TrEMBL record:
InterPro entries in the record: Cyt_P450, Cyt_P450_B, Cyt_P450_CS, Cyt_P450_sf
Family to which this protein belongs: Belongs to the cytochrome P450 family.
UniProt entry keywords in alphabetical sequence: Heme, Iron, Metal-binding, Monooxygenase, Oxidoreductase
PROSITE patterns in alphabetical order: CYTOCHROME_P450
Highest taxon of source: Bacteria
The protein, known as: Cytochrome P450
């Protein structure tokens, strides 16, 4: 098996349902070179080291011209500046600090904790919405609407506008997963129209919050005057869009992968039904076992870096395969076994270093509540199809549909 065909197989949709044997093959060469300027890193300690290395950049403008093209489709062009996810210090640090102040510690330490009751009500309402049905699509009926509704409440989107927000989010998400045979030009047009409409809506909401701020995150982002100054309108729009897209897409996968894993491990499902406290370690093991973000293909080197016997030259494209590192037997004993009792789960499911997932506390809580209630309330749940159909996206890996049959709803 050549290096190039191995990487292409990992990206190939035919292997989306189970890429883990390919990751095992990949780990035989911890730093694998493909062509002149693409390097794939697949082992735990090497990935972790590079995530903390200041010589690794998240800014695509630092790629050498020969490394700019990749095997993955580039993101849609946007008139907005890059979000802090795509920036390096000091700009990354400034924008992340400003976004963190109204979101979590130390300035707003209880925002996520105080949302727990509202999150639980959203979960209950969605499950109640299953009604008398004996089969649902966990993705369309639960995993997609749940995090979008949460983001709306977090940003302060009026309840009457949430349906419009859902439509934009669904359309933009579909643009990340183009269906086979779909007209690429039409897909691009529809996605760009949704991005434009969302941007115009958010811009109007920013104007409203500037004059009449409320008790929501967008109001605080608009009105804050901290040591880092104030965000520009473009930065506000870019950050709000990031919260919607990044927060939504990863949580959809986390919940859906979690339900699939539980249905494949009925003894664990039974334990969670009897003891909701299991949800905390279970979600951490899930982030290791089936992470919602499989790989990070957007890194580049600011200098030559020697790692695992290989020199990665300055300006090269570096892919960090988080999901492979999470199954590295040099780091985790029996890594292909789902074990919520695992004692040492320093996983890479949320990345690590300065780009460690900004929304991790919220995603954890959403997944804990969602999986606990789905497990408790679905009577006799079982998979209709295994493996289910997966999303096209190789980075954001998760089922596109997860049809589950059950005997009825518990109260």
């Amino acid at each position: 098996m050549t290096q190039e065909t191995l990487l292409r197989q990992i990206i190939d949709y035919d292997n989306r349902a189970d890429p883990y044997p390919l990751y095992a093959e990949l780990r035989k060469t911890p730093v694998r070179q493909e062509g002149d300027e693409l390097f794939v890193v697949s082992t735990y300690w090497e990935i972790k080291s590079l995530l903390h290395d200041p010589r690794i950049s998240s800014d695509a403008r630092n790629l050498s011209p020969g490394a700019a093209g990749t095997l993955l489709q580039e993101e849609e062009a946007s008139p907005l500046p890059p979000s802090f996810l795509r920036l390096d210090p000091p700009e990354h640090d400034r924008l992340r600090r400003m976004t963190m102040r109204p979101f979590g510690p130390p300035e707003t330490p209880r925002r996520i904790h105080n949302m727990r009751g509202e999150l639980a009500r959203i979960v209950t309402d969605l499950i109640d919405g299953f009604g008398d049905r004996k089969q649902v699509d966990i993705v369309d009926d639960f995993s997609y609407p749940f995090p979008v509704t949460v983001i709306c409440r977090l940003l302060g989107v009026p309840r009457e506008d949430e349906a419009r927000f859902h439509t934009w989010a669904d359309t933009i998400a579909a643009g990340l997963d183009p269906a086979p045979g779909q007209d690429a030009g039409e897909q691009h047009r529809v996605t760009q129209q949704a991005r434009t409409e969302l941007g115009m809506y958010l811009s109007g909401l920013i104007d409203e919050r500037s004059g009449a701020p409320g008790d929501d995150m967008l109001s605080e982002l608009v009105t804050q005057h901290g040591p880092d100054g104030q965000m520009t309108r473009a930065e506000l729009l870019s950050t709000a869009s990031l919260l919607l897209i990044a927060g939504h897409e990863t949580t959809v996968n986390l919940i859906t992968n979690g339900m699939l894993t539980l249905l494949r491990n009925p003894e664990v499902l039974g334990r969670l039904r009897e003891d909701a406290r299991l949800a905390v370690p279970l979600v951490e093991e899930l982030l290791r076992f089936e992470p919602p973000v499989q790989l990070l293909p957007q890194r580049t080197t600011l200098a030559d870096i020697d790692i695992a016997g290989t020199t990665i030259p300055e300006g090269a494209s570096v892919w960090l395969v988080l999901a492979s590192g999470n199954r590295d037997p040099q780091r985790f004993p029996d890594p292909d076994r789902f074990d919520p009792d695992r004692k040492d789960i320093q996983h890479l499911g949320f990345g690590s270093g300065i780009h460690n997932c900004f929304g991790a506390p919220l995603a954890r809580l959403e997944a804990q509540l969602a999986l606990t209630e789905l497990t408790r309330r679905l009577d006799g749940p079982r998979l209709v199809e295994d493996p289910p159909p997966y999303r096209q996206n190789a980075v954001l890996r998760g089922p596109r549909h997860l049809n589950v049959a059950f005997d009825g709803l518990r109260s």
